[in-house]
TrEMBL record:
Residue ranges of every copy of the UmuC domain listed in the record: 6-185
InterPro entries linked: DNA/RNA_pol_sf, DNA_pol_Y-fam_lit_finger_sf, DNA_pol_Y-fam_little_finger, DNA_polymerase-Y, DNApol_IV, Rev_trsase/Diguanyl_cyclase, UmuC
The name this protein goes by in its record: DNA polymerase IV
Tagged with keyword Nucleotidyltransferase: yes
EC number(s) from the headed UniProt entry: 2.7.7.7
Function: Poorly processive, error-prone DNA polymerase involved in untargeted mutagenesis. Copies undamaged DNA at stalled replication forks, which arise in vivo from mismatched or misaligned primer ends. These misaligned primers can be extended by PolIV. Exhibits no 3'-5' exonuclease (proofreading) activity. May be involved in translesional synthesis, in conjunction with the beta clamp from PolIII.
Organism this protein belongs to: Nonomuraea spiralis
PANTHER family for the chain: DNA POLYMERASE KAPPA, DNA REPAIR POLYMERASE UMUC / TRANSFERASE FAMILY MEMBER
Length: 345
DNA sequence: TCTGGGGTCCTAGGACCC
DNA sequence: TCTGGGGTCCTAGGACCC
């Protein structure tokens, strides 16, 4: 009997796979992608690493200098976001040609909604179509909702299909730590453990009211809901409307000069303004972010009297916000973020 | 492992208003 | 004048995700 399913399509090693299509001679070699491709650049991290590089202990998020130490034979490639964006669009276009609902969820993943008898057959069809048309491999998770489908695709990697529904949820998930759930990370897992809740089963059996006291009225009950295997089940096909936008830069060497700091903030504000104008959006609020050495991050924000995408106005506002910081320590990062007004109807 | 860049949503406290 | 209850907006920070 046909019923509705949520599938999560997750491209395998997406960035690395795109790079290997462009550089087939590197197949089988350890490859690390990140920054401008210079592994000696400080304060630069890996966007991804191939399985061959992972065997040497390299992983995404690792400083390139560390990756170079661990795997001196690795090939280091610069990150090329426009290429990944283009590859992503080709994949999503393939999915949209199929008789399913498609909700894009970032560069390398999408949720698919369909009503079918045999979801494994649909998943195999999606995988084959993507591989045939783009030469990229993906894994597919099948669930009753997005949360289950998302976890299922991770179990399916690489290049497989896995079904996680209400039927096998407890069997598959109950003994796993709480941070196996999508939306519970290391910090929350630790706090849960402090309450004696270590596994998904523990959390599923917990009192939502007690969780609300510890984590807030929305988050607490939400964690309980996740532990039961529940989640959003509606596939939204309308394009995502960004809530805001930001630009930030980590400097290879700390900034200590006030004027240099102000100049960088003005530069970032100008970029954000032109991004907003290009997107046809207005900015309602400006936030300046300063990361001091060592790694102490502070933000200050202000609501604009009138929403705008005017570069001069945004730059002045950002500089005024910057003026509220104590710039008494070396600065390693500066950022400017804006919150958009909802788009005109 | 001296720790990127770009997002989203929630929380808590205070201001302010009726 | 020893003092309620609620609603909304603003700000700073935290957590999580890719």
């Amino acid at each position: 009997m046909a019923r509705s399913w949520i599938l999560h399509v997750d491209l395998d090693q997406f960035i690395a796979a795109v790079e290997l299509l462009r550089h087939p001679e590197l197949r089988g070699r350890p490859v690390v992608v990140g920054g401008s491709g210079d592994p000696t650049a400080p304060r630069t991290v890996a966007a991804t690493a191939t399985y061959e590089a992972r065997e040497h202990g390299v992983h995404s998020g690792m400083p390139l200098r560390t990756a170079l130490r661990r795997c001196p034979d690795a090939v280091f490639l610069p990150s090329d976001p426009p290429a990944y964006e283009a590859a992503s669009e080709r994949v999503m276009a393939v999915l949209r040609e199929l008789p399913v609902l498609v909700e894009v969820w970032g560069w390398d993943e999408a949720f698919v909604g369909a009503t079918v008898d045999d979801p494994e057959a649909l998943a195999a069809g999606l995988r084959a179509a993507v591989l045939d048309r783009t030469a990229l491999s993906c894994s597919v998770g099948i669930g009753d909702n997005k949360h289950q489908a998302k976890l299922a695709s991770a179990f399916a990697k690489p290049g497989g299909i896995f079904r996680l529904t209400g039927e096998n949820w407890a069997e598959v998930m109950n003994d796993r730590p709480t941070d196996a759930l999508w939306g519970i990370g290391a910090r929350t897992a630790k706090k849960l453990a402090g309450l004696g809740l270590r596994t998904v089963a523990d959390l599923a059996a917990a009192d939502p009211a007690e969780l609300a006291r510890a984590f807030g009225p929305v988050n607490g009950p939400w964690y309980h809901y996740l532990a039961l295997g529940r989640g959003e089940a509606e596939v939204v096909t309308t394009p995502w409307v960004a809530r805001g936008h930001s630009r930030e830069t980590t400097f290879a060497r700390d900034l200590t000069d006030r004027d240099a700091v102000a100049a960088q903030v003005a530069e970032l504000a100008g970029q954000v303004a032109s991004d907003a104008a290009a997107a046809g959006r207005l900015c309602a609020r400006v936030t300046v972010k300063v990361r001091f050495t060592p790694f102490l991050t502070r933000t200050r924000q202000s609501t604009l009297p009138v929403a705008t995408a005017d570069a001069r106005v945004l730059t002045e506002a950002a500089l005024a916000v910057l003026g509220r910081f104590d710039l008494d320590r070396p600065v390693r990062l500066l950022g400017v973020a804006v919150e958009y007004t909802p788009p005109e109807a």
